[in-house]
Structure formats: structure tokens, C-alpha cells
């Protein structure tokens, strides 16, 4: 069952526009969340809005404001927000295209599936998708989502399109200060070749279903065990050894990877040997 659209509007490229719907491409409903409780009675705590001068405040008496100086605010109401309404409030406005390999992943933020809204929009959506796929291009544009204008990237996501909000340049930190200690210099041939072999031994197709949130799984086990009245099993954290000799560590890693491969083959053979013959 398709979830409800997050946003409805137009996707515009120059004089071409067609109605689209956006759907969240990711979900977080499966996460285990913990609530804050009163230690004595275990009742869930509630957050209450309080005014330092007048105490509890009703929702109807809450307004929004901007602090321009310490403890000095200017109130912003709905009329003010309507005055700054942009043309991208209900329109995804594509302003340029770039090569697919030009988009730095560090700028990618929240993804949305883009679906045509109505039969009349399907053909335009297909044409745009095929044109982008064959030219290997990504569209860059703007749209207002959640009271904020975002820059966005529009990419081909078979059999449709994927829109991803982008972080602005001022939101991304420069990497240089964090890598000051990583001095440039020549890399020795021997450890480089061993590192490449180690990478090759661990290279295989990416299957996202093989990766789960093990911490969330463990937390759920703890919750389930406590509900059942039993004590959850505690697993000791593995100690990670500190690398002293790079060559020795690489050689041991390669040797360990080889040993893991061999027993697996023998186990399969033994299991095949024990398999009972089919009865006539």
C-alpha cells in the first residue's frame, strides 16, 4: 500500500511543467524509542510550556518570534510569512543540469520518490526520465519544503525519479582542518600491494539487506526479555588491537581471510556426504 504523499505541486523545467507528488523514500518507524518516565511511579512525563512570569501557557496563546538581541524578540505571524512566499512554494524549479559524477555525496540529505500526479503527467515524466538517463545528467533546482527553501537534486531512479534535498555549501564543513595530521608523502610498494589484496578479498556486491541496526536489535531483545521477566544476556564488547606493525597486521589479515575461506568449503563437503540417499 502506497503511503500518503508528503508534498504535491509542479515540477518545472523552463516552459515545461507537470504535476507531481513526493513520497518519503526512507522511514524510521521501526526504531525502538525510549520514553522519559518518573523514576518513582514509572508514569510517562509530559512537557509543558511555561512562561517565567505567568506559568502554564495554552497552545492558543503561543506565537513565534526571533531573538535579535539577548531576551529581545520580534514576533513573526502568519501574515509576515505570507509576504515572503516564494514561487518555489508549490513548484520544484529545475535551474540547471550537471554530470552524474559531479554531485558530491556529502551534500545529499533527504530523499523523496517523485511520481507523476495524474495520467496527463505520466508521459512528460517518462520523457524527462529517459532524457536524463541517456545523457547521464542530474537536475539541480529549488523547492520549499517544511517552511524552508531547499536546493535539490533530481536523479533517475528506475522506473521513476528521485528528488534529494541538498545541504547548502555553508552547512558543510571544510575537510582540510580535520586532515592536517594526514601529511602527504610516498607510499611504500609492499604494504600498498598487501592492502590492495586485502581489499580485493573483501570485495563483493553490495546487498543492503545484509546490514541491519544491530544496536536496535539488541535493544529490542533487552526490552522483550524484561517484559517476559527474564534477565537480558549481556555480550562483552570485543577489544580492538592497536596496529603496531603495518606489514605484520596486513599479512595476518590476509592469512586470516584465507583460513576463513578453507573451512567453509570442507564443511559443505562433509554436509553433502552425510546427506541421506533418496529412497527408491
How does this model look, in words?
Among the domains are: 7-27 and 84-169, Ku70, Chain: A, Domain 2 (Beta Barrel), CATH 2.40.290; 190-201 and 244-274. It has helices at 78-83, 119-135, 189-201, 214-228, 246-274; strands at 7-13, 16-24, 50-51, 55-56, 64-69, 72-76, 91-99, 108-116, 137-145, 148-157, 160-166. With 280 residues, the protein is α+β, with helices and mostly antiparallel strands. It is extended. It starts with 6 loop residues before the first strand and ends in a 6-residue tail after the last helix. Helix content is 29%, strand content 27%. The strands form three sheets. A seven-stranded mixed barrel has the order 1-2-8-11-10-9-7. A hairpin with a 2-residue loop joins strand 1 and strand 2. Residues 264-280 have low confidence and may be disordered. It has five helices and eleven strands. Helix 3 (189-201) packs parallel to helix 5.
Amino acid at each position: 500500500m502506497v503511503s500518503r504523499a508528503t508534498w504535491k505541486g509542479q515540477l518545472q523545467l523552463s516552459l515545461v511543467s507537470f504535476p507531481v507528488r513526493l513520497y518519503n523514500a526512507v522511514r524510521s518507524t521501526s526504531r525502538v524509542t525510549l520514553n522519559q518516565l518518573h523514576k518513582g511511579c514509572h508514569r510517562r512525563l509530559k512537557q509543558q510550556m511555561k512562561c517565567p512570569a505567568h506559568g502554564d501557557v495554552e497552545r492558543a496563546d503561543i506565537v513565534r518570534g526571533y531573538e535579535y538581541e539577548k531576551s529581545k524578540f520580534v514576533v513573526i505571524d502568519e501574515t509576515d510569512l505570507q509576504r515572503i512566499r516564494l514561487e518555489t512554494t508549490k513548484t520544484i524549479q529545475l535551474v540547471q543540469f550537471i554530470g552524474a559524477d559531479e554531485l558530491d555525496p556529502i551534500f545529499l540529505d533527504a530523499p523523496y520518490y517523485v511520481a507523476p500526479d495524474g495520467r496527463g503527467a505520466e508521459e512528460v515524466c517518462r520523457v524527462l526520465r529517459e532524457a536524463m538517463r541517456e545523457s547521464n545528467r542530474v537536475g539541480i533546482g529549488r523547492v520549499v519544503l517544511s517552511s524552508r527553501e531547499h536546493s535539490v537534486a533530481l536523479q533517475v531512479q528506475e522506473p521513476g525519479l528521485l528528488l534529494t534535498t541538498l545541504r547548502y555549501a555553508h552547512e558543510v564543513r571544510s575537510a582540510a582542518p580535520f586532515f592536517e595530521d594526514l601529511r602527504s608523502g610516498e607510499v611504500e610498494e609492499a604494504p600498498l600491494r598487501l592492502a590492495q589484496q586485502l581489499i580485493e578479498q573483501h570485495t563483493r556486491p553490495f546487498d543492503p539487506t545484509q546490514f541491519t541496526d544491530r544496536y536496535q536489535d539488541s535493544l529490542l531483545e533487552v526490552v522483550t526479555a524484561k517484559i517476559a521477566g527474564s534477565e537480558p544476556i549481556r555480550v562483552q564488547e570485543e577489544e580492538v588491537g592497536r596496529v603496531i606493525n603495518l606489514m605484520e597486521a596486513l599479512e595476518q589479515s590476509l592469512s586470516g581471510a584465507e583460513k576463513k575461506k578453507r573451512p567453509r568449503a570442507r564443511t559443505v563437503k562433509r554436509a553433502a556426504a552425510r546427506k541421506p540417499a533418496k529412497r527408491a
